[in-house]
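Hello Y.,

Per our agreement to keep a running log of every chain we model this quarter, I'm adding this entry. I've kept the format consistent with earlier entries: sequence first, then predicted structure.
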Amino acid sequence: MGGEDWDEVLAAMNEARDFESGERIVINMGPQHPSTHGVLRLILTLEGETVAEVRAAIGYLHTGIEKNMEYRTWTQGVTFCTRA
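Predicted structure for the entry above:
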């Protein structure tokens, strides 16, 4: 699941709204920080204050640190790792 399925989620919510009279809200939650893109995304469906459904997208963030470290000195590598 990525960002491309958001239209599908909204379409399903519009269909559900036609059949139900309760208060239903869809919230896109995550990622919380720009450097954590692709790690965890939750789409919550709330009915009032109760979570009715959760769709989770769990990803893997690969920054290529190992490849970047191959051509650096130890001092450059330590500095790079603390910033990454």
